[in-house]
Write a structure and sequence with these properties.
The protein is an alpha+beta fold. The chain is built from three helices and six strands; from the N terminus they run ααββαββββ.
Amino acid sequence: MATVDDLDEVLEQFQLAVGELVKGNPEPVKKLWTHREDVSLANPFSPPAHGWEQVAATMERAASNFRDGEFVGSEIVAKYVTPELTYVVQLERTKAKVGGREDIAPFDLRATMILRPEDGTWKLVHRHADQITTSQPIESMVQE
C-alpha cells in the first residue's frame, strides 16, 4: 500500500525528474506517470492531453523546449492524502534555456498534481501547470 511517506519520496523523485526534463530529457518524468488511458495533462505549451500516448507525446514536446536547465526548488501550497487518491498544489522553480534562447532564464510554474496508488507506489494521473505564480490583473484574462 502506498503511504504518505511513499508520497514524499515520489515527490522528491518528481523534482529530480523535472531537473532532467529541463535539460531536454522527458524519460524520468514519464516513469512517474500512470500509463493507463484515464491519464491527463494540461501544460503551458499545448491543449490538454488525454490517454497515455497523447500525454507522453506532450511531455516529449515540452522537454524539447528546454536545454541546460535545473530544478531550483518548490513550495507546497496544499497537499491532501487518502489511501485511494492524493493531490498536491505547488509552486515549482526551474531555470533553463527556453526555446531558441541562449541565456538561462527562470521558468516558474503553479502546478496541481493528482496521484493514485498503482502496484504499491504513487503514480501521477493528472497534472495541470501554468505560469501564474503571482497575482494577475483581470485584463490579462481578455483574449484579443
